[in-house]
Design goal:
With 767 residues, the protein is of the alpha/beta class. The protein is built from 28 helices and 26 strands. The strands form 6 sheets. It has a 7-stranded parallel β-sheet with strand order 11-12-10-13-14-9-17. The N and C termini lie far apart (77 Å). 42% of the residues are buried.
């Protein structure tokens, strides 16, 4: 490997770009040598610090651009950082080794593939590809994939790989159930099957470099010499494999800088290990720790809310966020009857905020714990003609027709890829049935060859004779397409040739259905993506394009410029920010997941997840929960989330203003008093300096406002059964207004629906 040495030069004077940094940011940027832990609280400008630190290293001639390794968790983050660095130092930023863990190490593996027994054009399997392989293995072992879920087995294998547990170790040390025993058997075959297909899964992109460095120390040393400075973003999200491979690379110079926030560690289900950041100073002697605590994103009320939550966790690094922003609006708690009521009220609030404050659709985010919660919000937004984007749904590249076209293209660079070969050998139908395919796979297993090798010698197999003719035609087609590509056909032309010669587009045209038309449109869009890539790449190759789309992360799918309300899980929202955020479904067994007697470690991660949700908000924040929710086709009573009760009551109010805190010590004369708005648009400004009594406040206009339920739960909530002296028994179906102006709509069995003022109506809650 080519190595680089720097010519000694005199460091330049302090650059102008450092002048805008606060004191802690400046320390983090200019601390260049030795291990460094930057504890970057939410909204504290960590991306700015990382980019400025890289620019500073280059400006001070500490390293050449290709001697800096910067690892992120999304391609989008890497692109944004590289663009910012380019603005600071110019085009030499293009030579930085900057990208996601998977993209950087897949690049290294392409260079060194032969040392591991792989071809450089190996395929990268996504989750669905891996599950397909495992499903076929289960069938070979005579297990029913409907009973033993391939996804479950894949998750267990993935966990083992991320903890660097080999199949043999798993078999001898980690088998404690029948499912584990099945996993051990599948695991052994799975890694062999991938190797035969010249394929790696996502976990291999982290595990194989460790294998490479351990078996070839000269390769490790070469990369240690190359990467004199290593920076890792979101370090709290690293798993054991990521921890080990970066520690190996940093072992020579120890110039490793990690940036993260233990309070935002939310990916343990993916193998992330919070101890990596908590134990950083134990791993690296004399490590420096610099906290970034000034928040530039959120108002004081939002930060106070976040702080009150995260302080309940026992395992955390010491820091307290603060901001120079004003107090802002208190957090609003929406108490709803059921999920439809919740969705409608959230939509109404969005309309109201747009009309009164000029917010645009892309200023709003609706965050939920699990993907299935999106349905009722999608329906409510559609009914009210509000445009939205759903993040976390089916990816464009996961659609069947796109996966099919990708499978064809993959065979042009790696015909030994069994999973993609089997996927399209009879797609569209060309008379090669399941029996013939099973015979081909059995022949491959018996001879130790790849299925592609068997296909090329199909005449000597026991495959049904008519199928042999179809197979020869298929093999000849792949050879022609590969030859066209090798002889200089462009990627756009190669894709067009695949679609024509395979008969794929013709089959969709002949189907002539609404679904087939949509599939054709998706394929045309895929061709646009190919053309766009080919036009923009300096050295376009089909292998590079396939790698690029295989490494797209969840965070890369969000379009912040799309004029639409964003619906996403809290996990997907990490790293994003919105002026207005609604955190919905705040109920036990939903957020947090699990029962009240759940393991504390799980609850701590759920609390960190809630903290992430809170700190996405810049200006306005809403919590929402339901008293009832449909589950398994039945309406069930819900218990509101314990996290709502853990939030500092001084910064939260219900939609009716019933829980505003009386504590004066949280506000000073310099703070802007919180404001609340009635449904009619009237603003009430509370004079926090003049409490009259425990339940009464004086407004700025001099009038007094009485809150009868400040110390307890307001009984007149949606769903409550009430009795009226004149109208009889009924149920509250909605409510609006604030304080004494609160109105309720009650449906009475004998008199129908009535709208009543709470302060005047003779109502009594009876159930």
């Amino acid at each position: 490997m080519k190595t680089f040495s720097l010519q000694p030069e005199t460091p330049k004077a302090t650059p102008d770009f450092l002048k805008g940094l606060n004191e802690q940011q400046h320390k983090a940027v200019t601390h260049t040598d030795g291990p460094l832990l930057i504890i970057a609280g939410a909204g504290s400008g960590k991306t700015r610090v990382l980019t400025f630190r890289i620019a500073y290293l280059l400006q001070q001639f500490k390293a050449a651009p290709n001697e800096i390794l910067a690892l992120t968790f999304t391609n989008k983050a890497a692109r944004e950082m590289k663009e910012r660095i380019k603005d600071l130092i110019g085009d030499k930023a293009q030579k930085l080794w900057m990208g996601t863990f998977h993209s950087i190490f897949s690049k290294i593996l392409r260079f060194e593939a032969d040392k591991l027994g792989y071809g450089k054009d190996f395929t990268i399997y996504d989750t669905s590809d891996s599950e397909t392989v495992i499903k076929l293995i289960l069938q070979e072992l005579n297990f029913d994939p409907k009973e033993i879920k391939p996804k479950t087995i894949r998750n267990k294998i993935s966990d083992a790989k991320n903890q660097l547990i080999s199949p043999d170790q798993f078999q001898h040390r980690f088998v404690s159930s029948t499912l584990d025993d099945i996993t051990a058997k599948v695991y052994q075959i799975y890694i062999k099957r991938l190797k035969q297909s010249n394929a790696m899964d996502f976990d291999d992109l982290l595990v194989k470099p460790i294998e490479l460095f351990e078996n070839h120390p000269e390769v490790l040393e070469a990369y240690q010499d190359r990467f004199k400075y290593i920076m890792i973003d979101e370090y709290q999200d690293t798993n054991h494999a990521q921890y080990k491979v970066t520690k190996m690379l940093a072992d020579k110079f120890k110039n490793i800088c990690v940036v993260g926030d233990d309070a935002q560690s939310i990916y343990s289900f993916r193998g992330a290990d919070i101890s990596n950041i908590l134990n950083f100073q134990e791993d690296y002697e004399n490590a420096t720790q610099i906290p970034l605590e000034q928040n530039y994103r959120s108002t004081k009320s939002i930060l106070q809310c976040a702080d009150s939550i995260i302080k309940k966790n026992s395992k955390q690094l010491d820091k307290t966020l603060w901001t120079e922003k004003n107090y802002g609006d208190p957090i609003t708690l929406l108490d709803n009857f059921d999920e439809r009521d919740e969705a409608n009220r959230v939509a109404d609030h969005i309309i109201n905020l747009k009309m009164r404050h000029g917010y645009k659709n892309n200023d709003f985010a609706i965050l939920y714990r699990t993907n299935y919660q999106s349905r009722v919000f999608e329906e409510a937004l559609r009914r009210k003609s509000l445009t939205y984007q759903l993040v976390g749904g089916l990816s464009f590249y996961q659609r069947k027709e796109i996966k099919d076209v990708i499978a064809y293209l993959t065979l042009l660079v790696n015909p030994h890829d069994e999973t993609n070969l089997i996927r399209i050998i009879n797609e569209p139908s060309r008379g090669i049935g399941n029996k013939s395919i099973q015979d081909l796979r059995a022949e491959a297993r018996n001879t130790g060859q790849s299925v592609w090798s068997i296909l090329q010698e199909v005449e000597s197999t026991s495959v049904y004779k008519p199928a042999k003719v179809r197979i020869r035609e298929f093999v000849n087609m792949i050879h022609r397409l590969r030859s066209d590509l090798e002889n200089g056909a462009g990627l756009t032309d190669a894709t067009r040739n695949v679609l024509e010669q395979s008969g794929y587009m013709k089959a969709l045209v002949e189907e002539n259905s609404q679904e087939s038309m949509m599939r054709r449109e998706n394929i045309l869009e895929f061709q646009n993506a190919i053309a766009y890539y080919e036009k923009g790449a300096k050295k376009a190759s089909l292998s590079a394009f396939l790698q690029e789309i295989s490494l797209i992360t969840d965070g890369d799918k969000f379009d912040e410029n799309k004029p639409a309300i964003t619906l996403m899980t809290v996990h997907a929202s990490k790293g994003l920010e919105f002026p207005c955020v609604f955190v919905v479904g705040m109920e036990e067994n939903l957020f947090p997941v699990g029962g009240r007697e759940g393991f504390e470690a799980d609850i701590e991660e759920e609390r960190r997840l809630f903290y992430v949700a809170i700190t996405r908000a810049e200006e306005r924040l809403y919590f929402s929960h339901c008293r009832n929710r449909y589950k398994f086709g039945e309406e069930q009573r819900q218990i509101r989330s314990r996290f709502i009760d853990e939030v500092d009551a001084g910064v939260v109010r219900t939609e009716t203003g019933a829980t505003i805190s009386q504590r004066q010590d949280r506000f000073t004369l310099n703070d802007e008093p919180p404001k609340s708005t009635t449904s009619s648009g009237t603003q009430v400004e509370y004079d926090w300096e003049q409490p009259i009594s425990k339940k009464t406040y004086k407004s700025a206009s001099g009038s007094t406002i009485q809150y009868d339920y400040s110390d307890g739960e307001d009984p007149f909530q949606v769903g409550a059964v009430v009795e009226h002296a004149k109208f009889g028994v009924g149920k509250i179906v909605s409510r609006s207004g604030l304080g004494l102006d609160t109105k309720v709509v009650v449906f009475f069995k004998s008199r129908g629906q009535k709208k009543l003022m709470l302060k005047a109506a003779p109502l009594q809650v009876i159930g």
